[in-house]
Design goal:
Strand content: 25-35%
Number of strands: 10
Number of helices: 10
Distance between the termini: 26 Å
Largest sheet: 6 strands, mixed
Shape: globular
CATH architecture: 3-Layer(aba) Sandwich
CATH superfamily: P-loop containing nucleotide triphosphate hydrolases
CATH topology: Rossmann fold
Structural class: alpha/beta
Mean pLDDT: 93
Low-confidence stretches: none
CATH class: Alpha Beta
Helix content: 25-40%
Number of domains: 1
């Protein structure tokens, strides 16, 4: 478990999110400490993406509270949360397909006015993602899925996040590309960015994360260190496709 005696960077207390009359998230508690990578795993429709969207501010809460860096987020809109350091890389990547790669990256910095800092961060993204640099003037919609995912991560990094919310970064990608994406995610974390990861590939997520939460039908059913959850027979049977 974490050794950090300080307060969590992110704390969800009993959050509920509804689509009309249907509660997609039912009283979820979750915490993430500064510098941690925490994953959220579960079947399709468990409420994982909904939880990330509620943190990012793109979906309103029907109940409970979200505290970030000691502040209650309440009904703050997504753009204000982005300014406070919460960046979401959405499921399906959400890049601007008609813009070039460079234009996509610079969209990530639209909240900033420190030109030198932006250029330094562009250089950092190129170091981390050399493929992105090679494709700089290409229209983003013509890239492969893996390249688009790298652009989406690069764009989020240009907002200089303290907390990166990653929704299904490996979805639909070849194993070698997934490996590369997770190397990038690991190096982002080593630079001190905290990460909350939603990932269908539970094996991979639990290998990389310090801690994990298992979500089922809108509720957290299990939590523990990544290692402990990897060894848990129920988790192995349900999410890792293994039976004892």
């Amino acid at each position: 478990m974490h050794t950090n005696p300080a307060a969590p960077l992110l704390q969800l207390k009993g959050i509920e999110v509804a689509y009309g009359a249907i509660k997609a998230v039912k009283g979820v508690d979750l915490e993430l400490y500064s510098g941690e990578m925490v994953c959220l795993i579960g079947a399709n429709g468990a409420g994982k993406t909904t939880t990330l969207n509620a943190i990012a501010g793109t979906l309103p809460l029907a109940g409970g509270s979200i505290e970030y860096a000691g502040e209650m987020l309440g009904r703050q809109p997504a753009h204000k949360r982005l300014r406070k350091g919460i960046a979401l890389v959405p499921e399906g990547r959400g890049i601007f397909t008609r813009l070039t790669v460079e234009e996509n990256l610079r969209m990530g910095a639209y909240i900033r006015d420190d030109a030198d800092g932006i250029e330094a961060d562009m250089a950092r993204v190129f170091d981390m993602l050399p493929r992105v640099k090679e494709r700089l003037n290409q229209v983003a919609g013509t890239l492969s899925g893996g390249e688009q995912q790298m652009v989406a991560i690069g764009r989020a990094l240009l907002s200089r996040p303290k907390l990166l919310l990653l929704d299904e970064p490996s979805m639909g990608l070849a194993p070698l590309v997934v490996e590369k994406i997770f190397e990038v995610v690991q190096s982002v974390r080593s630079e001190g960015v905290s990460i909350l990861l939603v990932e269908q590939n539970a094996n991979l997520a639990l290998e990389f994360a310090q801690r994990g939460y298992v979500m089922d039908s809108g509720a957290i059913t299990l939590t523990g260190s990544g290692e402990a959850l990897l060894q848990d027979p129920a988790v192995r049977a349900a999410y890792l496709g293994e039976t004892d």
